[in-house]
Amino acid sequence: MIELPNLALRYRAAVLAAALLLIGAGVWAFQNLKVEAYPDISDTGVVVITQFPGNAAEEVEQQVTIPIERALNNTPKVIGRRSRTIFGLSVVELTFDDGVDDYFARQLVLERLRDAELPEGVQPGLGPLTSGIGEMYRYRLDGDGIPEMKLRELQDWVVLPRLLQVPGVADVATFGGLVKTYRVELDPLKLEKFALTAKQVADAISANNRNAGGGIVDNQQQSLVVRGVGLVRSRQDIERIVIGAFDGVPLFVRDVAQVSIAPALQTGIFGYDDVSGGVEGIVLLRRWENPSDTLAALKEAIAELNTQLAPQGVRLVTVYDRGNWFPTPCVPSRGHSLKGLSSLRSCCFSSWATCGRRC
């Protein structure tokens, strides 16, 4: 019993170096410790999301959900399957055995989705790599007097791309706002007059909404790139698209339809306190990431965005922040840790003093 203290007293420098090394390792571990308000204990899961716009739940179930389920039936290490079908949307969820790697599970699902027989133009995709408790931050775009369509445009093209660059963020879900669209309202009488159908107009607009490459023209000392520009950029561009000819005269879209800028049909609305309308963003944490580090980087990105959007009178206002839950569970734990460290130090010093007197 006395040999170990005697040995420690004899090699004081080595013991002191080992103690300092342990203290340094403990400080490093404490600084890199993941502090979570809601620890993730869920199983590995993969969500397959497929859009089939304009179709009722029955058609989506028969033409999308069932073929995807049949293609995923033989996926290994799956312990649970669940599907939901609503108007224009199919969601299939797979739950894997505990311990299955998330990226391995997603790769298995992608391999089998290639065998699903789906309608033309329907492309299934995987949901973000997160879990049911991955929601860590919510914000709203605040701008006095700024239309909701403009706020949604800033969210989709300025805010969202920047937040997706933050390490640890799996996805940013947008809720609310008005999505900008170009609306073409056909006149049935004019279509009948020119013997046209709605499909012919739609095909003409689709065929004229693209750029094309024409190769290179050699001009002796230099080469010229040939580029055909036909991408629609404004309402007037759509109006000037040629549908066909009538008695040798070109027939434009504006001759049979009225083109306007209008919001897409809303299926929900965002409200905050007593204010109805607006745009909200929901930031999702990627599984197994450190929420403390991700939140710190996220807040830096939001501060940059507020500085960038300030000239336009727009700012991001916090609605929910999981970081507000961190200090509460941490304070008792740190207090107990300090008490335990003090007790351990007292015991060590008393043992060394006793050993010294005996020696």
Structure description:
Helices cover 40% and strands 27% of the residues. The chain is α+β, with helices and mostly antiparallel strands. The strands form six sheets. It has a four-stranded antiparallel sheet. It has a four-stranded antiparallel sheet with strand order 6-15-5-16, covered by helices on one side. Helix 5 (148-163) crosses helix 9 (291-309). The longest helix is centred in the C-terminal third of the chain and has 32 residues, at 327-358. The chain is elongated and about 110 Å long. The two termini are 13 Å apart.
Q: Can you lay out the helices and strands and say which pair or pack?
A:
Blueprint: H1 3-10, H2 12-31, E1 45-51, H3 57-71, E2 78-86, E3 89-96, H4 102-113, E4 125-126, E5 135-142, H5 148-163, E6 169-176, E7 180-186, H6 188-193, H7 198-207, E8 212-219, E9 222-228, H8 235-239, E10 242-246, E11 249-252, E12 257-263, E13 271-272, E14 275-276, E15 279-285, H9 291-309, E16 315-321, H10 327-358
Helix pairs in contact: 5-9
